[in-house]
Amino acid sequence: MPHGDADVYVRRLSDMLGRHCPRPFQLYCYTDRPRSLPEGVIARDCSGWTELEREGMRPTTRKLGLFNPAYVEFDSFLYLDLSLVIQRSLAPLLDHAMDRPEDLVIVSDWNHAGYNSSVMRIRRGPLRAIYDAFVDGERFEQRVMGDQEFIHGVVTARGLQSRVALFPPGQIASFKSAVRLLGRDPVAAGEQLRAATIVKFHGQPKMHEAFGLRYRWLRVRLPELLRGHLAPVLPLAELRREWTGNS
């Protein structure tokens, strides 16, 4: 997304946490450039994590730095991508994430066996092997050249599955998967999004695109109407309201 949009995304994530996080929290923004951040959000400079740059790998590979205890000062923390919408209380999600004994709690990928790293609870230090493997030049067969499949590759290769737990199915939903399902089963697509605590917008579109008039009508309302649903099925208005904070 454009750099200016990222500042808006940070502000809106902070606002959503303020509405839906039942526990006291401090939001940190890990960034490789100066940001215009909301009051109370603390910036952490990750521009120096250059050892996590590798030709052909996505910029998101820098997330692997979260597994280096020298880069984080928290014994246990919840990581959130910017490109997601929190639409209800995080209490059940936090209870699950913080109470699990495993060192990593992560999302099961919606498309294939593996992980999605949009939401993670990480304990500082025990899984440093993930960071070290990348810095040491290890490689795995990956369909998507980024952090997610690399994390899965290290966990699998080293037999670390017992130290990883997953968030409950449906707690974190994929907007893209719901849109794909829309043409086959609109009701199920709508239920997936409505039941989720967090809706992740991975790939395209991001929220500022999905909530725009063109996308809403061409990619969502038109398929709904063609399936005979005069009223909206996907809760785009509700998701937009949660993201913008506007009633």
Description of the molecule:
It is a single chain. With 247 residues, the protein is of the alpha/beta class. The protein is built from nine helices and nine strands. The protein has helices at 3-20, 91-99, 128-135, 147-157, 175-182, 186-195, 207-210, 213-226, 236-244, and strands at residues 28-31, 42-45, 76-80, 84-86, 104-108, 115-123, 164-166, 172-174, 198-200. The strands form three sheets. It has a four-stranded mixed beta sheet, with helices on one face. The chain has a three-stranded mixed beta sheet with strand order 4-9-8. A two-stranded parallel ribbon has the order 1-2. Helix 3 (128-135) crosses helix 4 (147-157). The longest helix has 18 residues, at 3-20. The protein is globular, with a radius of gyration of 18 Å. It starts with a helix and ends with a helix. The mean pLDDT is 95.
Summarize the structure.
With 247 residues, the protein is α/β, with parallel strands linked by helices.
Descriptive keywords:
247 residues, alpha/beta, 4-stranded mixed β-sheet, 3-stranded mixed β-sheet, 9 helices, 37% helix, globular
Q: Give the strand order, joined by hyphens, for the main sheet.
A: 3-6-5-7
The percentage helix is 25-40%
- Count of separate DSSP helical elements: 9
From the alpha carbons, calculate the radius of gyration and give it in angstroms.
18 Å
Structure classification: alpha/beta
List the uncertain runs. none
Following the backbone from N to C, one meets helices and strands in this order, namely HEEEEHEEHHEEHHEHHH
Major sheet:
4 strands, mixed
